């Protein structure tokens, strides 16, 4: 993006750009997300008669062999429906919070600190949009509960009926932490990496794409390193069925981190890291390239170039 402030496009365009960017990424990358969740939900030593996964490839092989390849796409409708609002919220919230903070602090140029703060706030905003979808997805991805639910709407119906409507927001707190950390890393790095890379000659599409791919990928990797522990506890919290009168084992994010560390060791906080970073590293790059590209396209259309 150039230094001259561009006239912002209305939200509907950001929504469309976010949707195109997100859905393309998800169709290719979703199976990695299933592997990630399965590995994160796995606790303790192998149990006879239950598949135990020794890493990503083993998990892939066992799911395909014992449950069928279609399992790798189970639960995909929730993220697809969520993708457009999520991606649009991410970039739109980043833009609006950016303007808000610049105003608040009375500065007119983006700085490293502001870029990180803006990303963190955009992440917290995004969490509100994604929690119910994430909850449905986790329940469909978990093997132990696979028989309980018949697709997305069935999950919603059953959660609302047996756990109450508020249960749809189960895991909001851990999801907020997860998104605050990821987006602080993502937008913070994009700012820094864009500043370090050779400047794009105006109108040079290839340079723009190359820079965005590099900046977005580094941003995605950094965000993932920062937020994986929160992702592990979020998976655990959202997998838990709420039972009235019973205190759940995993409840609040920070204490849950302690529980996982105490019971399974520090490394357990990075469960599912490989499939996650393989997805969200390049995914972060693709996201930024497609988003910038689609927004440029809309801008040209509007300006009648
Ligand atoms: C995030 O918002 C800031 C401030 O509005 C903007 O300068 C920056 O380019 C945005 N980042 C991305 C990746 O769109
Ligand atoms: C997920 O939660 C369900 C229901 O609470 C439980 O039966 C199952 O064992 C959990 N899955 C894992 C892998 O922890």
From TrEMBL:
Coiled coil ranges: none
Source organism per UniProt: Penicillium egyptiacum
The organism's taxonomic lineage, starting at the top: Eukaryota, Fungi, Dikarya, Ascomycota, Pezizomycotina
UniProt main location, coarse: mitochondrion
Membrane-crossing segments per the record: 12-32
Pfam family, one: Mito_carr
Name the record gives this protein: Mitochondrial thiamine pyrophosphate carrier 1
Keyword Zinc: no
Membrane topology (UniProt): Multi-pass membrane protein
Gene Ontology biological process terms in this record: mitochondrial transport
Domain of life: Eukaryota
